[in-house]
């Protein structure tokens, strides 16, 4: 896939040139409020993140994609499926739906619009029976996105001393 268009968004694979915009987003403390990690301070670390994402495309044919505003080409964040190979909450080898946006784009339905593309892709192209998502238990906005997409909250679990919610979507 080269790119995907929705009413308001362009979704496309990450390129090396996206590192600057990704650094701007991931160095923002507000973006990391519910992520359980610290904002990125080293640009070389972001370059490694982009390389890792691109390797996911090569290894698994899927990964997080850039989300741009169709009206002006602005980097808004990312969304996509990630193939998880390490155990999280006793689950291993599964597709994880994720999304992250710059604060300027929060609360306007962009996460739901972008994530719905990947829910459809998992069902129609990957033909999987289910996908998963994880949220911080306090992240009400992200929980609303998943609820709109038909995810069911199955349980809570502790990861890195924080309570998270485990969500599942069955097809």
Question: How would you describe this structure in keywords?
Answer:
alpha+beta, Aminopeptidase, 171 residues, 30% helix
SSE topology:
Blueprint lengths: L3 E2 L3 E5 L5 H8 L16 H18 L3 E6 L5 E10 L9 E8 L8 H17 L3 E7 L3 H9 L3 E8 L2 E9 L1
Antiparallel strand pairs: 1-2, 2-3, 3-4, 4-5, 6-8, 7-8
Helix pairs in contact: 1-2
General description of the model:
The protein has about 170 residues and is α+β, with helices and mostly antiparallel strands. It has helices spanning about 20-25, 45-60, 110-125, 140-150; strands at about 5, 10-15, 65-70, 75-85, 95-100, 130-135, 150-160, 160-170. It has a five-stranded antiparallel beta sheet with strand order 1-2-3-4-5, sandwiched between helices. It has a three-stranded antiparallel beta sheet with strand order 6-8-7. The mean pLDDT is about 95. The chain has one domain: Gcn5-related N-acetyltransferase (GNAT) (Aminopeptidase), CATH 3.40.630.30. It contains four helices and eight strands; from the N terminus they run ββααβββαβαββ. The two termini are about 20 Å apart.
